[in-house]
Amino acid sequence: MNPPRIDFAAPAYRSPTTAVVRRGPCLPFIACLALLLAGCGTQRPQEPPERAAEVVRAEIVRLMPASVADRNGWAADIYTAFSAQEISTTTENLCAVLAVTEQESTFQADPPVAGLAKIARAEIDRRAGALHVPGFLVSAALRIDSPNGRTYSQRLAAVRTEKELSAIFDDFISMVPMGRQLFGGLNPVHTGGPMQVSIDFAQAHARGYPYPVDGSIRQEVFSRRGGLYFGTAHLLGYPVNYPQPLYRFADFNAGWYASRNAAFQSAVSRLTGIKLALDGDLLLPNSPLAGQTERAVRTLGKRLEMSDGDIRRALNHGDSLDFEDTDLYRRVFALADAKAGKPLPRAVLPGITLESPKITRTLTTAWFAQRVDERWKRCMARAGKN
């Protein structure tokens, strides 16, 4: 099991087949007539007919590992996540959500984390040290009674889950001046729930959330229903052109389109001889400065017949499918394919080492994606689709 992530540094976030198939109307009747037999009959060739809710929920129950408790409850929440977002309930898509959930939490809505109290206190001490706050002041602040009558120190010592830890930090930040000094009003717990989804991602994609919000979107992420809804959105809520689900699983860990962008970086590196980190980040985040990838691409400017401004404008599409329609993307791969004498991959696993206070061994995005992919294949085998 991949230990649930507590990302004290906010993570960057950017189908199991080529793209998420969403339900939608066929072409208008007149347009279909205009296209004759090539109209409605060919507009949705890969989209299976939608099945009744009870049929989908029954399939989800069958596909889950035998050890999962409250299988009907999990199935209902997963179905709602798909239905509310109009994501097609193919077996491939269902198995993708089940595989990530099993990997991240073994189907626990708020999974316990070993040594969480020690991790949390170490983070507080690290923040204090960075701000040159004396340790005795931190200890004194933690001895203050929290809203539930126990001291913050007592609550930290007993904390077992990210939901509990997030609540402690919320209270600590709002009630104790030291909390605001250390964390600036921002809760340092950045992921949670059964799919370990980014809370920032959930807050940015809360429109259309189908449930009444219990307190805040942050709190919803730690619930089974909320964690599954936003986790499904993060995993399947964007179109891709990947040849296999492995790369979508990598994106779930590294950010949307990270696998596609890493392949682009690899092509640029082949053409320029410049070693690039295959991390999927085409631009420096929130910066007008050119990063390593952009600088490397600029050295190809004359061959690409593109100015620095043209290159920057194209790279700005790196967080969407549109990037594949840019002159930059097409020209880089045309040159790289010609140099290699064969078509190069349009998706590769990002070369990212996972960092978290909870991780005690070297883990990578590739490791995560491959583990989820193994679970996905087992799920597909249970469905009789090897």
Features:
mainly alpha, two-stranded antiparallel sheet, globular, disordered N terminus, DUF1615 domain-containing protein, DUF1615
Task: Give an overview of the whole structure.
Among the domains are: 154 residues, no CATH class; 77 residues, no CATH class. The protein is 52% helix and 1% strand. It is built from 20 helices and 2 strands. A two-stranded antiparallel ribbon has the order 1-2. Helix 3 packs across helix 4, helix 4 packs across helix 13 and helix 9 crosses helix 10. It holds the Pfam family DUF1615.
Number of distinct beta strands? 2
The computed structural class is mainly alpha
Helix percent band: 40-55%
Sheet with most strands: strand arrangement: 1-2
Largest sheet: 2 strands, antiparallel
Q: Whole-Å distance between the termini? A: 23 Å
Radius of gyration: 23 Å
Shape category: globular
Extract low-pLDDT stretches: 1-6, 8-45
> What is the average per-residue confidence, as pLDDT, rounded to a whole number?
86
Q: State the helix count.
A: 20
- Helix/strand order, N-terminal first: HHHHHHHHHHEEHHHHHHHHHH
Tell me the layout of helices and strands.
Blueprint: H1 29-34, H2 40-43, H3 53-63, H4 71-85, H5 91-105, H6 116-130, H7 135-142, H8 152-158, H9 162-175, H10 177-183, E1 191-192, E2 197-198, H11 199-204, H12 217-221, H13 224-236, H14 246-254, H15 258-272, H16 292-298, H17 301-304, H18 308-315, H19 327-340, H20 365-382
Antiparallel strand pairs: 1-2
Helix pairs in contact: 3-4, 4-13, 5-13, 5-20, 9-10, 14-20, 15-19
